[in-house]
Amino acid sequence: MGENMLLVAFVISLAAIIVSVVKLRLHPFLSLLIGSLLMGFLSGIKPDKILESICAGFGGTMGDVGILILLGVILGELLHNSGATRNIAGRLLKLFGVDNTPLAINITGYLICIPVFFDAAFVILIDLMRQLSQRGKIALNVLVCSLAIGMTMTHAMVIPTPGPVAVAGIMGANIAWFIFYSLIVSLPASLIGGVLYGKYLKHHPAWGNAFEEEEIEGAKQGHADGEGASGTTGIVLILLPIVLIILGTVLQSMVDENASAYPIILFLSDTNVILLFTIFLAFFVLRRHLTASFNDLTSVAAESVGSIIAIICAGGAFGEVIGISGLGDYLVESMQSLGIPLIVLAYLLTQVLRMGLGSITVSLVTTAAVIAPLIAQTGDSPVLAGLAVCAGGVGLCMPNDSSFWTINKFSRFSFGETVRALTIPGTIAGVTSFLIVLILNLFQSVLPGL
Length: 450
Known about the structure:
Blueprint: H1 3-22, H2 28-42, H3 47-82, H4 84-96, H5 101-112, H6 118-136, H7 140-157, H8 162-171, H9 175-201, H10 213-219, H11 231-254, H12 262-268, H13 271-286, H14 294-325, H15 327-338, H16 342-357, H17 360-378, H18 382-392, H19 402-411, H20 415-442
Helix pairs in contact: 1-2, 2-3, 2-14, 3-8, 3-13, 3-14, 4-5, 4-11, 5-6, 5-7, 5-9, 6-7, 6-19, 7-9, 7-20, 8-14, 8-17, 8-18, 9-11, 9-18, 9-20, 11-13, 14-17, 15-17, 16-17, 16-18, 17-18, 18-20, 19-20
């Protein structure tokens, strides 16, 4: 099939995914499967080969990321139900002081959204933002901006959040190095977009309206402020698997692969094993604060994550079809002739999908599926290419994104206030994170893990 027709097939299948999600309100899982079939047929792939590729891509992605995502969500449920999530904010406020409330809130959002989904984390904390706004005479939009951008950065970039897990898995990136550099990229961007930009919002205060009683109750999790597990415990349990994953990779590099201890080290430093250990440790530490049984919390996590895993695996199927279509070779040749670096293409494509689809996770998975086959041909770092994809998913939060309306509704903001508190600072944070990725790319040859 002609190379130009391959590109046409890709554009048509991508447009079909966007239209079916945005206009027809079809579930992204089904939309991605339809896009995979359309890409296969338009590319001239034999029907049986299309189905074989879809199944291989779906199953391979499930094997790479399915367990990891589920374990991460279970950890989030334990922290949420025990009250640790809410108390993290109080602990950080004591640490940073009242004068630095936006900074404390930004880091709170950054930490909490590592294991807890964005919308759920925001609903948990919004009544606390309201109280802090009233007590400290700080405009609510300043605090919401700090919280939302902190949450967005880890939601889009830090494992074990589903989107970044999928990107790292599809890209074939080392998990530990991906986490390490994602922290370097995302934290400064979070502070610039959430805290520094928040200083501008002080001149355009929005105090919000009174909450409905049922919304306040819906935001709570069975524990009053200060009750439940301590914030310090919550922070330790969130950071523990991240630290262990990084240490495991360092330890692997220090031990000879032929040593008898190497297989044991490899097993114990596996990301799934580390998260499984963290979950049981978290249950042991938090058990007296839990308001539901461990089995019930695991069931809730499994039910809530099913849709996300289905979307991610369908994205893997889409990528598999793209890989066998030959589109990758054409894109590499086109980039080389135009002088476009792969990480720039990764960022821009994710930004386009972010605007069109609304969902960060779906846009990350879809772009990763397109970019992954190109990495081996271009010699780019899978870690940096993956982080460029994640950076592209941060900004341009539009009204087709559920998080836009979550913040709009629970903060009682107008449309314009939501744009100023979320869309604009999110875009600033996304651009900042991409610039940091570009800087890291300049030193790819000397930095470890890239």
